[in-house]
Design a protein that fits this description.
This protein is mostly helical. The chain has helices at about 1-30, 30-40, 45-65, 70-90, 100-125, 130-135. It has six helices and no strands. The chain is globular, with a radius of gyration of 16 Å.
Length: about 140
Amino acid sequence: MPETFEKLCVTTGRVLLGIYFILPGLSKVFGWEFNSNYMAEHGMVFIPFFLGLTIIIQLGGGTAMVLGYKTKPVAFVLAGLTLVISLVLHNFWALPAGELATDHEAQNFVKNMAIMAGLLVAAGLGGGAWSLDSKYRHYR
């Protein structure tokens, strides 16, 4: 039973991390203008390039995580993307203290650090027994 529980936990965590990136990736595709404006408000440059790249990484990486395909490098790339997004778009320290938007961005930043922690665990340990990595031995 403990081995099955471990496999279930690793698989569930990996799939949830993958879904966490697929859904925002889709929302960026269908909400391109909104996301472009949000990025512009935060001083981003080359918005079409970076928004397109983010969509590709989120959709491709999220799908790979769900399947457990090349989990270690994919999780590492997603962790890096999460860090960059957090530093650039959720920079609560640059906003006026005590405002709702500041609190919201601080919450997003801390949440993203927790997501990044899960991704770093997956980058270190891999996709688990119930993954394509395990089945085809691409990455363990």
